[in-house]
Amino acid sequence: MKTNEDLQQDVEDALKWEPLLEAAEIGVAVKNGIVTLSGTVDNYLKKMQAEEAAKKVAGVTAVVETIDVKLPDSKARTDYDIAVDVVSALQDNWNIPADCVKVQVERGYVYLSGTLPWDYQREAAKRTIHDIEGVKEVVNLIHITSKESTPIDRQKVIDALLRHWSINANNIHVTVSGSTVILKGFVSSLYQKEEAEKVVWKAPGVTQVDNQLNIDFDFTNI
């Protein structure tokens, strides 16, 4: 069992453990297992690493991320400069089919759109531009349009969840509706909830995952 204060300390320690992050840059607040991250960093990669580090802490049920990205004036970049680098990075990533992703940049915010056949390609598109200087946020609007014609095999999805070392899949109920997989039940951490969704996205034919999993964790002093 953890108090809000215990969880806050655990998250702060997790942030300190990341070599790229400076603890003084990021503020942590906790209420009912929900972690709010605030502050200012000088690149988008730091922002993402802070969020990922917080999500992996046991007891975290959700992360509200309000971290700002602000480049020093000496390194200021135009949207055009950022767009050139984003397009180049996407073209160089062999995971992403050519000409499938559209890019729009506005005040450092990068909007990705288009259609791809697999979720791992959508995630690769986002990850490949994390460390581009000047990026403040990545809004991933890419849709998944599967070319798979056979129905989703529900049992294979269940088997894949059962194989995953970090997920207690016995508490997860899987439903298939067309090309959508619905997850219901309980897991013990936000990390497990997101891992379960990643497993499901690998099933052929999936175009949407409705992740309704609840996080079951004991708290005190809430």
Task: Please explain how this structure is put together.
The strands form 3 sheets. Strands 1, 2, 3 and 4 form a 4-stranded mixed beta sheet that branches. Strands 5, 6, 7 and 8 form a 4-stranded mixed beta sheet that branches. Strands 9, 10, 11 and 12 form a 4-stranded mixed beta sheet that branches. It contains 6 helices and 12 strands. Helices cover 32% and strands 27% of the residues.
Structure described in brief:
By secondary structure, this protein is α/β, with parallel strands linked by helices. Helices cover 32% and strands 27% of the residues.
- The coarse silhouette is flat
Distance between the termini: 11 Å
- If you compute it from the alpha carbons, what radius of gyration comes out, rounded to the nearest whole angstrom? 19 Å
Mean pLDDT: 93
Strand percentage = 25-35%
Which helices and strands appear, and what pairs or packs with what?
Blueprint: H1 4-16, E1 26-31, E2 34-41, H2 44-55, E3 62-65, E4 68-69, H3 79-92, E5 101-106, E6 109-116, H4 119-127, E7 137-140, E8 143-144, H5 154-163, E9 172-177, E10 180-187, H6 190-201, E11 208-211, E12 214-215
Parallel strand pairs: 2-3, 2-4, 6-7, 6-8, 10-11, 10-12
Antiparallel strand pairs: 1-2, 5-6, 9-10
